[in-house]
Amino acid sequence: MAEATLQSQTRADEAFDCLQTAIVTGELAPGEKIGEVELCSRFNLTRGPLREALGRLESRGLLVRRPHAGVKVVSVSAAELLELYRIREVMEGLAARQAAERMTDEEIAELQATLDSHEKMIEQAQGQAYYQAEGDYDFHHRIATGSRNAKLAQMLLGDLYYMVRMYRYRLSTSAGRPHLALREHRRIVEAIAQRDGDLAEFLMKRHINAARINIEKKIEEGVLTI
Amino acid sequence: MAEATLQSQTRADEAFDCLQTAIVTGELAPGEKIGEVELCSRFNLTRGPLREALGRLESRGLLVRRPHAGVKVVSVSAAELLELYRIREVMEGLAARQAAERMTDEEIAELQATLDSHEKMIEQAQGQAYYQAEGDYDFHHRIATGSRNAKLAQMLLGDLYYMVRMYRYRLSTSAGRPHLALREHRRIVEAIAQRDGDLAEFLMKRHINAARINIEKKIEEGVLTI
DNA sequence: CTGGGGTATTTTGTTGACAATAAATGGCTC
DNA sequence: GAGCCATTTATTGTCAACAAAATACCCCAG
């Protein structure tokens, strides 16, 4: 159960965190209709802060609200998920370019270190699941913040990634291609280390495009039913 | 004064609309610290719905909140404003591409019609101010929705445009180049009408890049002090 | 006169009760 | 028996009072 991560600054923040992780992990399934009182007892909250959190979640597109009719978790169709990747492609392309221009040498070294640890995890075979789920997220997270573009990072980290992760938890998006994905990551970091913004953008766009095509293929094969 | 636009479905929606327009129009200045009780009396609201609205506004990045210390309107620096245009460049580039692929012939005709009316306004000289402020917004709005990419439209219309408009109200972003901007708009629509996604994306990116450079120049000249 | 500490005040955060609206159920008519 | 309308019920929206926290002010010491 998604308890409050440490102590949040305020009850509303706590509610927000709880609900967000609950939605992302699938504890609250897409399309599920949820009552306010039920949520209150479930997360030990009162309705005031809860409603504030619900507003924030709605504003971020994680749930939809119909006046007087309750709130339900947003359910993203397969087509919409693919559209999300189209957005990621251009936004993360920009992030990679700006990261190449602005990341400190230290940050780049750390980035390379995380890739090393990812590689070890993959070699240990069973690490695959973790790698795609969290390692991949970690990589993209670092580049988003490395762009030094506050709004870009906010939109990626606070908006898009949550929606993507929501589905990554139940379907292994890049399953079967962890080595390939890692190699793509390496090339991107290489370009960033060489301060080659053009190349970093190009490689990142291609990387995300590949992930999108991978999902598309799986959907066609019927492996993924969203 | 920014009264409730018609009757919103709920008090919180009303509060949200009021505050959003108040921020965008500059009625609430950037950096201004605002107390909850003051806002309540100002917009005839009670604190419950207000707080819900504040949460939504914060989530959208229009205001910042420090626990127990109040809320103040976000103030975007010149550098951050330029970063916003970098994001617009890639996102609206994508929007233009997808619009070229997906807009109906009817929508394209309407788009051309709006450009005609914009042209008339410019010819009537005094229309300049309106054109840049609302006509330009109208154009970009139509393309965002025309992309048929729900999340992309949501991010552009619900997030970025409000921040940009916030500054467009006090500084004339594309002042001095209305004819040029219109010509660029025409070319973009032309590419969309020809279903040339590549070209539409390219032209849109160049258009927004030009707008960014224009602002950059003004800032260097000291005309704009943000 | 200036700096630090403590109290007072203001403002935010939270709570539980109340009102209004939509969904659900049951009864009535056709 | 089926469909529609009214009533009931449950749930959401709203409110005003209470508690907690941070800022501001004032007093005192150096």
TrEMBL record, chains A, B:
- Transmembrane parts of this sequence: none
**InterPro entries for this protein:** GntR_C, TF_FadR/GntR_C, Tscrpt_reg_HTH_GntR, WH-like_DNA-bd_sf, WH_DNA-bd_sf
Matching entries from SUPFAM superfamilies are given as: GntR ligand-binding domain-like (SSF48008), Winged helix' DNA-binding domain (SSF46785)
* Every HTH gntR-type domain range: 9-76
- A Pfam family that this protein carries is FCD
Keyword Membrane among record annotations: no
Q: Which positions carry the signal peptide feature in this UniProt record?
A: none
- What is an example of a GO molecular function annotated in this UniProt entry? DNA binding
Please report the name of this protein according to its UniProt entry: GntR family transcriptional regulator
Q: Which organism is it from?
A: Marinobacter pelagius
Tell me the lineage of the source organism. Bacteria, Pseudomonadati, Pseudomonadota, Gammaproteobacteria, Pseudomonadales
